[in-house]
Write a structure and sequence with these properties.
alpha+beta, D-Maltodextrin-Binding Protein, domain 2
Amino acid sequence: MRRLARRSGSGQGVIGGTARLSRSFSRGLAAMLLGALVFGGSAGRPVAQDGSAPQADGPAFLPWQEDVVPADGDGAGQAPGETPFDPARLALMPELRVGIVMDPAAGDFGRAAPFRELLEAGLRIPVLLIAYRDLSHLQRAVVTGEVHYAPISASAYAAAQGECACLEPLVAPRRDDGETGWYAIALARAGEGIDRLADIAGRRIATGPREAVGSRLVQLAGLSAQGVDLEGKTTAASLVAHDDPLSAALALVRGDADVAFVWSSLQGAAEAGYSRGTLRDLAERGVDVSGLEIVWSSGPIAGAPHVVRRDVPQEIRSEISAIMTGQGAAQTASGAGFVAVGAEDYAPVLAAFPPDAGAPSGRLRPLGGGD
């Protein structure tokens, strides 16, 4: 028998009832939910199991397994071909709860089924999925321990880590071009006398939105650590927020700003604006980027991490990392695969979210810097 559990968008626990589900139906529904985890779904409305129109604040449904451990511990009672659970692993951790942000409109969720089976087969414990309507609620769920493992943005990880110091990043997706990270940078026009970091202070600085990670917060934290405080009383007025990094860069090109906070991969041909980022966006719009120079750069920042709580046993954490960086994950989840990451790969973003600084939900919005 399986209990049908549901988690509300507010992440306040199990709400509801019981139902008999066939094993194949349960796995199909789980595959649909996992699609958002593997293939990059964004915040959206949860979908109801009965096919009725989803409500904006309604719950998301998932199969919650019961009686997954055979009485004799030898796999008896499982359907042919299903993963036999490992009694030793089950003693360590009876289930792994994976949180996702689910967007029913994101595409064919059924293609995620092989990945879920790979994860469960490798861990040899039940893998349960819990869907949340947005990144902010998922971030709260992993902080409180409602879920053990979740793919979130770099900024959501940094904000959560600043609050609880309870998370470990395990892996991040590798792009099709092989790149795995990005940089927050500060641009200036060549020959304008901005040759040292101290020259930035007092200048007109164009940034992304006030809560933008890759085009404002990382730069402010990084420059402050190097002795350039741009948020003091004498310089705060020089910071002008724009709708996005490209708008900030265009303000610099037009002469409306002296410095622009943007982001770049810093990989590939510099004359073409590198492979990704704001300089690339300028070049593709016909702007000659040779007249711009990078006057400051953060360290490399890895892509959106899959994080796990540190109270998950080390054996389970290590196995998840091994599964996710193996060929099987590349074949079933992402053609480019995943790379192992650690806290050091997010140091510039972590510096923008110091412990106990608080994290307004707006800061959890993934931005163009790859976070």
